[in-house]
Known about the structure:
The complex is a heterodimer of chains A (331) and B (535). With 331 residues, chain A is mostly helical. Chain A has one domain (19-328): ABC transporter involved in vitamin B12 uptake, BtuC, CATH 1.10.3470. In chain A, 77% of the residues lie in helices and 3% in strands. Chain A has helices spanning 2-13, 17-44, 51-76, 84-101, 106-130, 135-154, 164-171, 180-198, 200-210, 212-217, 222-248, 259-269, 282-301, 306-328, and strands at residues 159-160, 173-175, 178-179, 250-251. Chain A has a two-stranded antiparallel sheet with strand order 1-4. Chain A has a two-stranded antiparallel ribbon with strand order 2-3. Chain A is globular, with a radius of gyration of 21 Å. By secondary structure, chain B is an alpha/beta fold. Chain B folds into four domains: 27-100 and 182-258, P-loop containing nucleotide triphosphate hydrolases (Rossmann fold, 3-Layer(aba) Sandwich); 109-178, no CATH class; 266-352 and 440-520, P-loop containing nucleotide triphosphate hydrolases (Rossmann fold), CATH 3.40.50.300; 363-439, no CATH class. Chain B contains 17 helices and 24 strands. In chain B, the strands form six sheets. Chain B has a six-stranded mixed beta sheet, with helices on both faces. In chain B, strands 18-21-22-15-23-24 form a six-stranded mixed beta sheet, with helices on both faces. The A-B interface holds A 1-7, 9-10, 194, 198-201, 203-204, 206-207, 210-211, 213-221, 278-279 and B 34-37, 39, 59-60, 323, 345-346, 348-350, 355, 357, 362-369, 373, 376-378, 380-381, 384, 390-392, 394, 423-424, 434, 450-453.
Amino acid sequence: MAVEARAAAAAGAAQTPLERLRPFAEAFGTLAVAGLLLLAFGLTSSVFLEAANLRNILVQITVVAVAAIGETIVMLAGGLDLSVGANVLFGSVVAADLAVRQSLPLWFAIPVGIAASAGIGLLNGVVSAVIGIEPILATLGTFLVAAGLAKIILHSSWIVVDSSFFADFVQTKVFWQLPVMVIAMLGLYAAASLLMRATPFGRSIYAIGGNPAAARIAGLPTTRVRIAAFALAGAFAGMAGVLQIGQLGIVSSGNTTGLEFQAITAALIGGLSVSAGGVGRVERTLLGAVIVGMIANYQTIRGVPPNYQQALLGGILLLAILVDRLIRGRA
Amino acid sequence: MGGRAPNPPAHGLGTTIPTTPQPALRMRGISKRFPGTLALDAVDFEAAAGTIHGLLGENGAGKSTLLKILAGDYQASEGTIEIAGEPVTIASPRDAREHGIGIVYQELSLLPNLTVAENISLGIEPTVGGRIDASLLKRRARETLASIGVAAVDPERKVGELSLAERQLVEIARLLTIRQPRVLVFDEPTTALNHHDVLRFFSIMARLRDDGVAVIFVSHRYREVLEICDECTVLRNGRRVGHVQRGEASLERLVALTLGQRGEAAFSRAWRAEEDAETVLEVEGMAVGSRIHDVHFSVRRGEIVSLCGLLGMGQTEIARALIGDGDRVAGSVRIAAADGLPRTAREALRRGLGLIPEDRQAEGLFPDMSVRSNVSISSLARIVVAPFVRAIEFARERALVQGVAERAGIAPRVLGRPMRTLSGGNQQKALFARWLLRGTRLLVCIEPTRGVDVGAKIEIYRQLEALARDGAGVLVVSTDLPEVLGLSDRVLVVYRGTITEELDPRGTGEQRLLLAMQGGAVGEKVGLVETEVVG
């Protein structure tokens, strides 16, 4: 036993260069990548660094970025939520249906839409944390449920939302010419960051994601926290849905196709792991979303056809995961 | 049992076959050096064909190293190995197999999703025209299982559905199918088995012996060794300290050989609880499943009580049942004057109980969180701004954690670092600090110093004593004899699922304690165990 302990100590002392890089990579890796891309794109395109284009990128990423907040929280808790995309749609459909077709006031329609998405999240939490079904399977099921419910409400049609309130999301600029929805996104990130950093709930999420067995022995209410994480992710999806109404002005079932994967991609590029929770930061997911947005925008500027863009984004995601593995030494 | 002269061997297991002049296995002058340690020092070990040979010794005595050399996992620094008189080199596990050496480890290597038959023939599947011959596969499995007297295991069942005992049988059958071994090692095979399965296991070992295999039985259970082995070899600190033939062996002799003469206890207590302190834990008639029964004990404020038994005797299950981890728990439990057994860890905590688990990495630590967060995680309610303002007040957290970290002997500068960067000793101290901060009434520690260096051990003992001094009761589960004797106010010996003896560590020697753990009494003439009729 003494021998093993010594061997372990020796192994700990001999760090590879990659391992020594790890703390820096964790703290600044995503930021550095974002900076490098900004530089590279700026040098190779004359329009990329224009203020209007940069603002445009932020508007483009808002919906995915807000949905990715919830995705990040679930992933930090050691889960995965495949239902976010459908849940964004569900929230926006409920809100738009109540506001436009039922002519109910917005102060009612919007909270109900968000609550509907939170309800789907709650279902995710109960199915995975209480019944014990793998989150990836549970949320695959609710993905179909949410998408189906949204289509039922839509009646195979769409809802045009002609409301100055929603139009202001994009049109009204608050400061630095940034529109309301971008400010809302930044505000939600700030709130989520505080929640994860400075509350017992956030601590518990990290603990449960990092080591569920230890979290139980430490006396944390593991089931409750997991359910709350999923429900919260649902609420963020609902908020993303409301923002999307403002961005597009129309609610239709094609709005959110592939959104869950964009959200997961943003979280992964921001340094989260699908296989293990407990490591990562919400604000880095925002950087991940910005990186995804910059790449998409640059490709559009360069005239890359949309189908190629998707394949390229997938390649970048694989690269990000590979680099992460190398640095963290997780196999 | 006590007082009987050596019985004639039960169920015909004990007939000694005369040692052949050429032993099946002869290891001579085996030394193994690791950086800074001599794990084995010129050890001789011989096992004859057609005998069962016990290999005994404490943890760290060198048994595993010797086995790993035999298995081809390690290379000896010095020494020679002969198989049936022929000098051999065992450079890899493959070499070991080719020389007819088979080892059954505690961790079995079966694939749970395959059937028994598929596992037995894994890698050597019989084929017809390129496809696996399923009927031959099954027949082969049935025949091999029958050859060791096992008819009850269905070859078509999935291995994952079998009990541990049954899986061991499959593992043996697999070894036999690959190649009839000349030397077959069983590494603590009976630790997790009940008495019935142990007897079945013995009959298989006897059968293999009668087939001419040199069987090596590694065990901490000396009664079993005495029952089944023809001879045994005892290692201590990397040396061979004894070789005993069947007739000469007794529990006391084996215990004395294992431990030798040792000096002072690991720790000497500076403070002890008052005799009339109030009780924090009272357990009456506890039973857990079918393995633990009739457990009665209590722990007072300020007391350190040890549950001490050989691995698998049930002490860990008793401790874990207290935090709601038991399956089918019966009996009455009183914790800090409140009745009833906690059903979940969370409830146990609310009742004032804390657990230091045996596997720190798996159940104790949050490796990527800071040491500070690891300490405060069980006291989150104490570091929020107000009960209804659930925001963490970082200044308060810092101050509180710093306070307990000092008491636990953790340097303040490491508090901000990720837990995984700390040494084993410091990690364990951080877990203590967690419970210091929470203020537990009863701390249950399972193997608190496992994998911790000597200096840190003493500090952990001091921590436990300090905790007791602050008024907590401490329940320690440990198999480390010097630790148990140096640390405890009372020692409760657990044997076969119940507490069989209470010892006062003052005036109790290690040999006396180990003898009690083996289920033996002083002066008892044990050449053989009581034989129980199995239904």
